[in-house]
Amino acid sequence: MLNLDQKVKNDEAARALGFTWRRWLVLGLLLAITTINFVDRQTLSVLAPVLRAAFHLSNEQYGRIVAALQFGMMSGEFPMGALMDRWGARLGLCFAVLWWSAATGTQVVTNSGVKFGFVRYWMGTGECGNYSGGMKTVMQVFPEQERTLAIGIFNSGSMIGATIAPPIIVFLLQRYGFHAAFLVPAIAGLIWVPMWWFGRGKERFSPSARANIFSSDSVKTLLSERRTWAVMLCRFFIGPVIQFYWYWIPNYLFSVRHMSMVRIGLVAWLPFLLGTVGGVAGGFAANLLQRRGVSTLNVRRITMYGSSIACLTSLLVPEMKGIASALAMIGAAILADNFLSANMYGAITDLFPDRRVGRVTGLTGVAGGFSGLLFPLLTGFLVDRLSYKPVFLLIGVMPLLGTLALFLLANNYNREAPASIPNFAPEHGEF
């Protein structure tokens, strides 16, 4: 018969095994909803040539519709982050997904450019909750050395969504019309909600934890800290880069490279497949360096400076003569940008404790939303009056500017990085 000490050890091992299995299930659900989210976002960009013709939209008018989504995200980021911090990601993500799925479905009955702008704004106020809820969940259920890998995996849902969106949307367009392309991701979001509710499990907060969530972390307090501005400026410069690829590449391939809609559906997903690899690779590289004893600061320096320099490959896109070589350069730039993004989000978990992660992620989303609001307008202006060439130049340089901003402003990186949060800590939630 086992003695008491051995029984306790066995029970602890069993709980640890169960927790490990459960947290990867939860990560799979985060990956799924991020994929759905970005299929949803990509629908407009893939359908851009059709919708522009149907509603007689110029590049600038289309840019305004894209900007409306970004303005909605900018408006909703901090309220969604606060919701995740106050009530937890289980309830918060259910609300966010139901909210944006309703907006997605409404696009089926939208019949003008102006109305599309309003509905896309509505969508944005909900879709921004994906990242604050995801970051909150990763912070709660993954140990420190695994967080960047977990972030890289669930963030790769953005690339998976962008990868599968063109063939799926073009198929729905050809078979059922563009209305079906808006309806399918809305239904997928509704199906996901009960899976998350029962799969995530209860989040338990002690009275002191809930009482202290907002006690000393007002917006004014957060904005008074250099590290907050460091991560905000980092996302301000990095955020619009991948958004450009999501929303403008199908239009670029159609109008500049003269590809048909069918051909776009067949090949436009390939660069985003490389982006999926980049997101996971960014998390894996950080995890590997941490396990080898590299300091957190140096892990971020190596991964972020290296990938931001690699983003300069976008400058080569307009110089490529063939479509295959242009797609290869686009894919290389997307891979580097998604590698960088995994570590950018990882930097938030380095610099801030769990109780702040939702709101800080929200504030970075406000910064990213603001630049995401401005950049589509600038893109439309430049494309209509000049060409895509200056746009590719901008998105090549911006990741490096964002990385520089992070390390120049976050001069307290090592000193104020939070300690790893132990598993099963009741103040942070458990299964």
Superfamily at the CATH H level? Answer: MFS general substrate transporter like domains
Question: How much strand?
Answer: under 5%
Radius of gyration: 21 Å
What's the overall geometry?
Answer: globular
Mean pLDDT: 79
Q: Tell me the distance between the termini.
A: 30 Å
Derived structural class: mainly alpha
Instruction: Report the top-level CATH class.
Output: Mainly Alpha
Estimated helix fraction: over 70%
What's the number of structural domains?
Answer: 1
**What is the fold-level CATH name, i.e. the topology?**
Growth Hormone, Chain: A
For the record, the CATH architecture stands as Up-down Bundle
Low-confidence stretches: 1-18, 414-431
Largest sheet: none
What's the number of extended β-strand segments? Answer: 0
Order of helices and strands: HHHHHHHHHHHHHHHHHHH
Q: How would you summarize this macromolecular structure in one to three sentences?
A:
The chain is mainly α.
What can you see in these coordinates?
With 431 residues, the protein is mainly alpha-helical. The chain has 19 helices and no strands. The protein has one domain: MFS general substrate transporter like domains (Growth Hormone, Chain: A), CATH 1.20.1250.20. It is globular, with a radius of gyration of 21 Å.
